[in-house]
Amino acid sequence: MMLGLWKKPIEMMSFSVATLEGRRRLKPLEFSIRIACLVTLIVILMCTGGLTLLAQFGLVTDLFNGIMLAVTLGGAVAFTVTLLVCWLNAREVQILVQSHERFLHLSHTDALTGLSNRLGLYAACDKLGTDYCVAFFDIDHFKSVNDRYSHLVGDLVISSVASRIREYFDPPAHVARLGGEEFVVVQEASRLAFLQMCERVRAAVAATPVDYQGLRITVTISIGVAFRGDAEIFDKVMHNADLALYRAKEGGRNRVCMTG
Fold first, then answer.
1. pLDDT at 20 over 80
2. Helix (H, G, I), strand (E, B) or coil at 151
3. For the chain, does the N or the C end have fewer beta carbons within 10 angstroms?
4. Residue 179 φ/ψ, nearest 5 degrees
């Protein structure tokens, strides 16, 4: 009962550090001052109430001076100690939250392209709606690029293709590099619009050679597209897009194929 009465004042005076959003917006000094004020107020009320009760039994002769002394000393000590302890703890919480956010970003991001990796893709697609499209992108004959020009050029080609995909698929589309020369895009969009966007990306990549030390390296991509239907799970739609990608490769590459 008592906790219920204090719940609202506590929430008003402090951040809700029990939630991730509360920890993200936590400011150590502001948090410490809020908690210190709350604790000081409680101490003052307890001192005042306790001395008043003792005065009723004749144990305190000078109630006014007693209350003033208790409020001054108790309030000062309570505020100072609480402020210091809360600031130290809030600072540690802030550092841990920042470290967690940084680790989460690194663990969900492909280092070469800055796109999401497989883990980041699955995390981002956790709350997809019922209708969405998936496209698998694969750089044609990528192994020959590495073998002929070196892995450095291969990285440039991967980065170039990643930029083209990111350029044409703006948020809220989820763009990720699954590894090697393979990319995936997941978006809640109409099927026709999604297919047209994939075709634009394919054409843009083919029309944009990668320049390296006077060389102009022509790059093409194959794309497989699948659409969610019949309450399929995400992994099934991904698998269907992968099958469509193989059809695009077998059909001569540098093309867009879809399932069905």
1. no
2. helix
3. N
4. 140, 150
